[in-house]
Write the C-alpha cells for this entry.
Amino acid sequence: MISRAQTVLLVLLVLASLIMGVMLFRMRERAHQRLLTGQDSAPTQAPAVTAPVQATLMVANDDDNSLRGQLYSLPLPADPGARARAVLGKLLDLYAAQDSNHPIAGGAASVAQVFLLPAEGAGSKPGSAGGAAAELAVVNLKGSFVVSHPSGLETETLTVLSICGTLHANLPRVTQVRFLVDGEVRPSLAGHADLTRTYLTSDAVPVDPNTP
C-alpha cells in the first residue's frame, strides 16, 4: 500500500511538473515574441559610404604583360578595410568582363575580406603617407577565384601585382600585401605565383603611357 506521506509527495511532484510546464510554455512564448519584435524593429543598415571619389585601379593587360592605372569614380566606404575590399572588387569586376584584357572569372565576390595590420618589420617606422605607420594588407580570396584562375607565371604575377598596386594607389599606407585563400595559406595562385610570401606594393610599377 502507498502510505499517506508517499501520496502527498506524489501529488506535490505532479503539481510541480504542471507548474514547470506552464512556466516553460510562457517563457517560450515570450522568447518568440521578442524574436518577432527584434526582426521587425531591427533596421537594415547599409555600409556608410562617402560621395563618389576618384579611385585608381592598376589594371593588368595580358597583351603586353603590363599594369596601367585607370581612374574610376566610385562611392567608397569610409572604413579603410571596406574601402580596400571595394576597390579590389571593382578591379576583379573588370577582369570578369567579357572584353577584359586579363580575363578571370569571379568578379567582386572573389574578395572575402581585406584586413589591415601594422606592416611586418616596420615597428614604429613611418610609412610613405605623410609619416603615418606603414600597413600590411591581408587579402582573403575565395577558393572559387583561385580554382578558375588561368595558370601561368606571367598571368598569375600580373594578378598579384595589380592587386598590390591597386591597394597602394588608394591606401598609400599599405606597403605590404599577403594573400589567403578561404582563410588559409595556399602555396600558389594557380601553380606559379607564390602566395606564401609577403609582397611589396613598390613592386607593382605601372607602365608609363608616354614610354614607347
Notes: The chain is about 35% helix and 20% strand. The helical segments are 4-41, 80-96, 143-148, 153-170.
